[in-house]
Write a structure and sequence with these properties.
Blueprint: H1 2-16, E1 40-47, E2 50-57, H2 58-64, E3 69-71, E4 80-82, H3 85-99, E5 105-117, E6 126-139, E7 142-152, H4 159-182, E8 186-195, E9 211-217, E10 227-229, H5 235-242, H6 250-253, H7 258-271, E11 296-297, E12 309-310, H8 313-324, E13 343-344
Helix pairs in contact: 3-8, 4-7
Length: 349
């Protein structure tokens, strides 16, 4: 349905201004030299997984597209209109891919520190630390991100149960994370390993990408970047599920839930260098919380359907910066460029 709508919209726009359509997003800056009417704005849409642009009247954009956003891509340029947030994100990723040679890659391994509590005078601030570990590279198809996750399971549980959990999780959750990144033209690779006794862990074991070690706990609890609780946060969630007042965690169904996969994607976001974006009593001085809603940020703590959860330009800048830096790509200019800000177009009646 969405694809058909975009194709139809592109056809309408092309017929309105056939001479002004650019070949692709890369040629967009040169489009400024094309003679267009003063009320014309450059509009970007996604077609066949590529971002293309046309010129059309600003008033028509505001009447036609319910999810349109407008952003100044580079300093000194006129604002550009994008069909929706996903198109803007795809434009930024495509721009990075066009500035990076095939085969180039960057490996990221560091600790990310975030202030939880600010301390007065000479006292050290209380920090939250997440391990960041991933590869990002350019192949013939575009930009890809890769992680390796080693689940550290407990010997207190039967081996069959532990292996069952890992098989269910790896068969379900990675594809949801991959689907999220595909919206923006980013490929995703994830390798999963499991070991039951951390004390005999072979430190020289090789993995495809930098390794993230995660405790997989077959119980209730609050997950974080280093520990995933399969059952959800608390038993009360299961009671609410039975009463049909809340989403069902895995404990209620025996299967991997959307809630668990969303939690896992959120925690993998930390491994890609993204901070929490919600207010947390344990981190009262955190300044990274999000005000986005509909769509909601993956790094928020609001459980929403997958189609209503997104990564935003600030997230793509953080993840792709190691590859795009100093290439001339928009995402490689600075870590928090002002031009990644955007506003939604208010649809006119």
């Amino acid at each position: 349905m969405r694809r058909a709508f975009l194709a139809g919209a592109l056809a309408v726009l092309a017929s309105a201004a056939p001479a002004q359509m650019t070949r692709d997003a890369k040629s967009a800056p040169e489009a400024k030299s094309v003679a267009v009417a003063s009320d014309q704005v450059q509009v970007y849409l996604t077609q066949d997984k590529k971002v293309v642009s046309v010129w059309m009247a600003k008033a028509d954009v505001e009447k036609s597209f319910a999810e349109a956003v407008v952003a100044t891509v580079r300093a000194g340029e006129e604002p550009r209109y994008f069909h929706d947030l996903r198109t803007y994100n795809r434009f930024l990723v495509q721009d990075c891919a066009e500035h990076v040679k095939e085969g180039e890659r960057a490996r990221v391994e560091r600790n990310a520190e975030y202030v939880c509590r600010e301390r007065p005078f000479i006292l050290a601030n209380e920090l939250r630390v997440n391990r960041v570990a991933y590869d990002v590279w350019r192949d013939k198809k575009g930009i890809k991100v890769g992680v390796s996750v080693r689940f550290m399971t407990s010997e207190d549980k039967p081996a069959e149960r532990e292996l069952e959990l890992v098989e269910k999780i790896t068969a379900t959750c990675p594809e949801k994370m991959a689907g999220l990144l595909r919206r923006y033209g980013i490929g995703f690779e994830a390798d999963f390993l499991v070991i039951r006794n951390p004390s005999v862990f072979a430190t020289n074991a090789k993995t495809e990408h930098p390794e993230i070690r995660v405790d997989l706990v077959d119980a209730f609890g609050r997950s974080d970047a280093a520990k995933y609780y399969y059952y959800g946060q608390k038993y009360g969630d299961c009671v609410a599920c039975v009463a049909k007042k809340a989403p069902c965690p895995a404990a209620c169904t025996g299967e991997v839930s959307d809630e668990f996969c969303a939690t896992m994607a959120h925690e993998l976001g930390h491994s890609l260098g993204l901070p929490d974006e919600y207010k947390d009593a344990s981190c009262p001085d955190s300044k990274t919380w999000s005000t986005d809603s509909d769509p909601w940020s993956l790094m928020d703590d609001t459980f929403q359907p997958w189609q209503s959860v997104e990564l935003f330009p600030r997230h793509l800048a953080a993840v792709l910066m190691p590859l795009c830096r100093s290439t001339g790509a928009v995402l490689g200019e600075v870590m928090k460029p002002y031009f990644l800000a955007y506003r939604k177009v208010k649809k006119q009646p």
